[in-house]
């Protein structure tokens, strides 16, 4: 096998330097990871009520879930009613996003009102997720 040789100003270079290519690949990888949209699910299964006025909301939002046992979940962890306000304040400092609350159809109305109040006291806007009856 014959190896290619290139001579530049009296120096001999063997092969091709691919280190800039590797750097470029890592830069693109980091860019796509940072630019990707990550949607965090609340982590529990909720039986949402059906509503004829249901509409799609934006993907970049804070998803909370209220179970029929009156537990509040975010990202698979139970945060309780006390954890709603600090969580929403912290996330809204990072980026302005709406809060979407998934409520189990068998949960108590007083628990729903309590979560809505905590979100509003934290400065967030809240919507309740339902199923479309179509």
Task: Give a quick summary of the entry.
By secondary structure, the protein is an alpha/beta fold. The chain is 31% helix and 23% strand.
Order of helices and strands, N to C?
A: EEHEEEEHEHEE
The total number of structural domains is: 2
Q: What is the residue-averaged pLDDT? A: 79
The neighbouring-strand order within the major sheet is 6-5-4-7-8
Q: Major sheet, described briefly?
A: 5 strands, mixed
Sequence stretches where pLDDT stays below 50 over 5 or more residues? none
Question: What CATH architecture label of the largest domain applies?
Answer: 2-Layer Sandwich
Tally the beta strands: 9
**What is the 3D form?**
elongated
The third-level CATH topology of the largest domain is: Nucleotidyltransferase, domain 5
Strand content: 15-25%
Q: Tell me, what is the CATH class of the largest domain?
A: Alpha Beta
Describe the structure.
The structure is a single chain. The mean pLDDT is 79. This protein has three helices and nine strands, in the order E-E-H-E-E-E-E-H-E-H-E-E. The longest helix has 17 residues. It has two domains: 31 residues, no CATH class; 83 residues, Nucleotidyltransferase, domain 5, CATH 3.30.420.270. The chain is elongated and about 85 Å long. The strands form three sheets. The chain has a five-stranded mixed beta sheet with strand order 6-5-4-7-8, with helices on one face. It is an alpha/beta fold and 134 residues long. The termini are far apart.
